[in-house]
Structure to design on (600 residues):
């Protein structure tokens, strides 16, 4: 099973949320697992899309209370490590999809690139030469899963 | 859903493995989630019991390779933190059951007690006044789940 | 330079504080470095003894504010990892001395033993077969430094 | 005392090394503490500059062996957390100076910006709107220390 990390801001516009929702749904339709930071915004909409399409979601939380997780997290891991948990999101993922995002997402993207993992960018505001740019949620998941098999 | 951490040695005797298997199976029968360190020995037998009884298991691995997980881990988290991942096993669990075990298990037990979490001991070789002693796998899970509700 | 971890409760009696103070002072007199969790109680008295004898102390803090460190910490590391920083205290130390202590100290002791590090116990309330029992602060440091050379 | 994190590649050109050396020396001359990842390249040259100017350097290492530290690290912390230790470098620093650098340095920069910490960039190849651009090592340290007082 391929573990796809979805990273992005903890708050997002409705339009960005829709992108995230579609990414999550496509991950479920393709039979992959969604890994994320477990909170709101992009994370929540991606989890919602995944769960409503029948998929499973893992949320790796910064705090120690499981109830901080958004309601679409199948299994929530409380780390108590704060933003350091970003590293775990990357470590646990085979490939990542960045949907919009700020400096937190940029940190995850750069960690992933440093570790040699593929990062697909969907309306990600930072231009990094080693990310793959996708034009739509379905294309993003397609690019992410290409060549992965576990 | 209650998250039950099962802790114990990475290698164990057949008799200890049977205890762990029964603990895992009872966790599944009671509808709880099994969290563990994802490797062999007690962890593997508990996961096997849980999965064969229809339950779900999370394995929080010390290394960075998912294939290090035992085959009965439903979802494996690679941390790359080495033994420090013991902390995450405790942090993610609502309550813990120690099945036999050495110093690694003792570290998890003492972290859990320090954080005010219940620890049920099943043939755990260290005598700590604040653990609850169970006489059988079924009793261990019963004691663990008592009063938990999420 | 040998890095000696001093572990023990964050609050302690005057008599226990005196033991910790003497351990810290002896570490300084022997030219070793003191590593600890940076807070109060045993940690503070050990740091005070070390600093007043001309030594250097490292404090590895659970939180993110450097001012949480006791005033006798030469260099304070803010981790934001909570009790998980106990692991770092052990990882950074060549050898450890447990002065009294509760479950937090027991977790550090068992992690150290798991990792094959020497632990000297001075009035440590838990009986573990693999710790070395010292009768006085000077003897504790003597036992800790024996055979270490870096 | 102000803790200044110096981040940059683990290997660097002689010209980049000279910049790092000068940054480290200026940190020492200004009475601040240098924090870094403890390895080679920019980290080593910055430590060397700092130590040769009479300053103190902390190296937060990815591995578990203290001898991995470059020879100009005053106090080395072994974490065993791999690249995750980047987070600790940022957490321990009041302000950061990025000297050249790749994705690892970008991850540290973005974590720092996410946490609201000032980052001064000296020939840092990524253009981020919230970093401060310095034209020389002395200016970089001047900009870093401005307004800091602890």
């Amino acid at each position: 099973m391929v573990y796809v990390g979805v990273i992005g801001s903890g708050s997002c516009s409705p339009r960005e949320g829709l992108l995230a929702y579609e990414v999550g749904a496509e991950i479920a339709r393709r039979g992959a697992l969604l890994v994320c930071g477990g909170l709101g915004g992009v994370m929540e909409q991606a989890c919602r899309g995944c769960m409503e399409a029948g998929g499973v979601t893992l949320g790796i939380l910064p705090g120690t209370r499981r109830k901080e997780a958004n309601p679409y997290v199948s299994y929530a891991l409380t780390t108590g490590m704060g933003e350091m948990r970003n590293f775990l999101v990357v470590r646990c993922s085979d490939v990542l999809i960045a949907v919009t995002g700020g400096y937190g997402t940029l940190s995850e993207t750069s960690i992933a690139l440093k570790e040699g993992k593929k990062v697909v960018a969907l309306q990600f505001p930072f231009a990094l030469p080693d990310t793959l740019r996708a034009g739509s949620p379905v294309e993003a998941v397609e690019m992410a899963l290409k060549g992965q098999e576990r």
